Amino acid sequence: MNDPRSLPEHNKITEQLARLAARLAELRGIFDYVGKRERLEELDAHTADPSFWTKNDKAKELLREQATTKKVVDDLDEAQKRLDDAVTLYELGREAEDADSILEAAASLAALEERVAKMEFRRMLGGRFDNANAIVSVNAGAGGVDSQDWAQMLQRMYQRWAERHDFKVELLDVQDGEQAGIRSAELAIEGEYAYGYLRSEIGVHRLVRISPFDANARRQTSFASVMVLPDVGDNDEFDVEIVDTDLRVDTYRSSGAGGQHVNKTESAVRLTHLPTGLVVACQLERSQHKNMATARRMLKAKLWDLERQKRDAERERMEGEKKKIEWGSQIRSYVIHPYQQVNDHRTELKSSAVNATLDGDLDPFIEAFLLQQSKPPDAAEAN
Asked: How far is CA 36 from the centre of its chain?
């Protein structure tokens, strides 16, 4: 039997063990493992209290924090356990001169490397609302029926992305196009760090293809815009107040799918915020009360974003910066003809897998954007 110390994997394994131990120790500090364990104990005590559900909205918020905190703690605990198990297996393999055990330990460490890499990536999602659910708005732009069809393709792309991640996705509102596609759609995507990931999609998306609506089969360029807002419900940190006297409420019959019941009553709700002119609508539920609650949530997110834009504009004015947001400043182009390519103009990441991207395989583009954003300014410019 071969001496385990002479196996080619020996140096690699010992280096991996040291490297993974250091990386896990760093992650425990970054994610404040000790603090999160203490907070989890507090949340567990809250949820066990018989009066926990007396305030329904607050209870839901605490349950969500509990789930997120538990996920971080459990991930770190599981990673540490896998490392300890691999160390034990490796040491037993060396003592018994069992090459199979050493190779099994090496395979376990390779899998752990991937797990730790994902945890390290998540630390980039440290924005104030990155762990929130997301409200995604898609709006057709210049290009007529082609752009409305393109907007519907984007709506499906984000639905498929959510499904790939086992996130819950709901179509809150949709305005159908005249001939095909949609003029606009609002999606609620619920999942861990949904907003943190999807904020990379904010901007104008451009499609180049042979138009299926042109009898002469000419090439058409279409545009659609995507906005993503954090959906934080009644989170106290979300400092936006909606005054009822500032609202105009319109109710109407839903035009969406869902059976005959949706058209029997005026369950759909449209809210107009009179001071700002912001308009939101929801026709998801058959209950007008539930649609009203969702519409207020959507409006709250848009009001927060409006305030954020004002603060950003003032900061840029003070810093002397000028940035334009217009149709020509698309963040990503999807070319189907005369060649096939998806090109992200911010990160310069390109892919020929157009169909896969449109089917929701967005992670390479999302990760490239987040990695770019995480770099110090000098490093980003150097690249």
From this structure: 23
Best CA proximity match to 272, nearest among 263, 284, 280: 280
The backbone torsions φ and ψ at residue 135, rounded to the nearest 5 degrees and listed phi first, read -110, 120
Q: Are 79 and 33 in contact (CB under 8 A)?
A: no
56-96 and 9-30 helices, crossing angle to 10°:
160
Q: Are strands 182-190 and 168-176 parallel, antiparallel or unpaired?
A: antiparallel
Instruction: Give the domain extent around 98.
Output: 4-122
What gap in Å lies between CA 188 and CA 297, rounded to an integer? 11
On whether residue 271 sits in a domain, the answer given is yes
More confident of the two residues 52 and 341: 341
Model confidence band, residue 345 (pLDDT cutoffs 50, 70, 90): very high
Residue 336 exposure: Cα atoms within 13 Å on the Cβ side: 17
252 — phi, psi (to 5°)?
-155, 170
Alpha-carbon span 344 to 81, nearest angstrom: 39
Give the closest residue to 143 by CA, choosing from 197, 214, 246. Answer: 214
Domain boundary among 62, 90, 122: 122
Q: Order across the sheet with 332-335: list the strands.
A: 168-176, 182-190, 133-140, 219-231, 203-210, 332-335, 341-344, 350-351
More confident residue, 333 or 240: 333
298 and 224 within one domain = no
Q: pTM for the whole thing?
A: 0.70
pLDDT digits (tens, 9 = 90+) for 232-281: 765 555 567 788 889 999 998 876 544 444 455 678 999 999 999 999 99
CA proximity to 15, closest of 106, 104, 119: 106
In the chain, the number of structural domains is 3
Q: Is there a domain that residue 278 lies in?
A: yes
Q: Residue 258 is part of a domain; what is its CATH number?
A: 3.30.160.20
286 in a structural domain:
yes
